[in-house]
Specification:
The chain is an alpha+beta fold. 21% of the residues lie in helices and 32% in strands. The strands form two sheets. Strands 9-13-12-11-10-14-8-7-1-15 form a ten-stranded antiparallel beta sheet, with helices on both faces. The chain has a five-stranded antiparallel beta sheet with strand order 3-2-5-4-6. A hairpin with a 4-residue loop joins strand 2 and strand 3. Helix 2 crosses helix 3.
Length: 271
């Protein structure tokens, strides 16, 4: 069974008369506003200054200051104000939760075979704030490989395997993408972790995790278990769709409802 998700506020006719040339229009600057933002993790509703984004009630955002890194939701927008800027922290990022495309049921997740439906660079902002520009990450690889059908070849400790299996059963693998030979996943635990690897012919190579362990970790184990289950389900039900693009992106159903559907007041959903 499949279902399509599409959120639009209006239909726009982009066809121009033949005699009319398209003239680029300068983007209008966002309206300055003071917004109230609710942070569920702290059960706090605070006011922030915004001059970078066109915000509306229900939008997810990140801010600077003491609550930097925490995801908040806009509860009100005020355009009529006069404030001392030194007294207010600012909105620094708006989270894009607009999703368009066809999705298919795959157990606890949904899957799309459309590269434009759930790009990793969009989805990661649902789970953590953008990294500071000055942050530097280094990675190295030893070309260690193992078969997805024999995860014992990962040589993970038994307690790590058990914890990873628990993460897998708890659907903590929120997002998983295979783009030709490149794999990427998002796992939620005490923090948000990114798992990357190479993948070809059910062989995994150069597996790393942003928890920065120097040995196979529970996040990697959870991702491998989720990948194996999902590929088996896809092979049984959607192999033709997968082979057409060589791409798949999985999203957990709880993340779908929490970020894509919750709070939407316009748009459509067809099953």
């Amino acid at each position: 069974m499949s279902f399509k998700i599409g959120f639009t506020s209006e239909n726009i006719n982009t066809t121009l008369p033949q005699e009319t040339a398209a003239v680029p229009q300068a983007e209008a600057a966002p309206r300055k506003s003071v917004v109230q933002i609710y942070f569920a993790d702290r059960n706090m509703n605070l006011a922030y200054y915004n001059d970078r984004f066109d915000l509306k009630v229900g939008d997810w955002v990140y801010v600077d200051g003491k609550l930097e890194g925490l995801r908040g939701r806009v509860t009100s927008v005020n355009y009529n104000f006069k404030i001392k800027l030194s007294a207010y922290q600012r909105v620094i990022a708006k989270i894009d939760t607009d999703v368009h495309g066809a999705f298919f049921h795959v157990g606890s997740h949904v899957v799309t075979f459309d590269r434009h439906a759930l790009p990793a660079e969009q989805v990661i902002t649902w789970f953590r704030a953008p990294l500071p520009e000055e942050e530097e990450i280094a990675a190295g690889f030893d070309d260690t490989a193992f078969s997805l059908d024999n995860l014992e070849e990962m040589h993970a400790e038994s307690k790590i395997v058990e914890r990873g299996h628990n993460y897998y059963m708890e659907n903590r693998v929120r997002y998983l993408c295979i783009d030709d030979a490149k794999g990427y996943a998002i796992v939620e635990g005490a923090d948000t972790y990114e798992v990357e690897f190479e993948f070809r012919d059910r062989t995994v190579k150069n597996l790393t995790c942003s928890c920065f362990c120097s040995y196979p970790c529970k996040h990697e184990v959870a991702v491998m278990l989720q990948l194996r289950e999902s590929l088996d389900r896809i092979a049984e039900n959607y192999q033709e769709e997968y082979e057409k693009t060589g791409y798949l992106a999985l999203l957990s159903k709880n993340a779908l409802f929490s970020y894509v559907l919750a709070g939407k007041e316009t748009g459509s959903l067809s099953l």
